[in-house]
Amino acid sequence: MKKNIGSIDKSIRIIAGIVLLIFALIDPQNNWWGFIGILPLVTSFVGVCPAYLPFGLSTLKSKKK
């Protein structure tokens, strides 16, 4: 798959994922939804966001020759 996540987008996803996981780990019985933080972490490390694909979106800077 072609990568579609740029560096700023990647940084935001990592921070959001970590924050959500911290909330989930503090009190997993009441904040179980925080485990959704795994999704932004995985997409940031893989470099592909499946939600961007159907719309043809990309936050990568284009390389011009």
What does this protein structure show overall?
There is one protein chain. By secondary structure, the chain is mostly helical. The chain has a domain at 7-48. It is built from two helices and no strands. It has helices spanning 7-26, 38-46. Helix 1 (7-26) packs antiparallel against helix 2. The radius of gyration is 14 Å and the shape is elongated. The two termini are 23 Å apart.
Q: How would you summarize the topology of this molecule?
A:
Layout: H1 7-26, H2 38-46
Helix pairs in contact: 1-2
Which keywords apply here?
65 residues, 2 helices, 45% helix, elongated
N-to-C SSE series? HH
Oligomer: single chain
Helix and strand content put the structural class at: mainly alpha
Strand residue percentage: under 5%
| β-strand number | 0
Rounded to an integer in angstroms, the radius of gyration calculated over CA atoms is 14 Å
Low-pLDDT segments, ≥5 res: none
Q: Provide a count of the helices.
A: 2
| Distance between the first and last residues' Cα | 23 Å
- Average pLDDT metric: 90
Shape: elongated
Major sheet characteristics: none
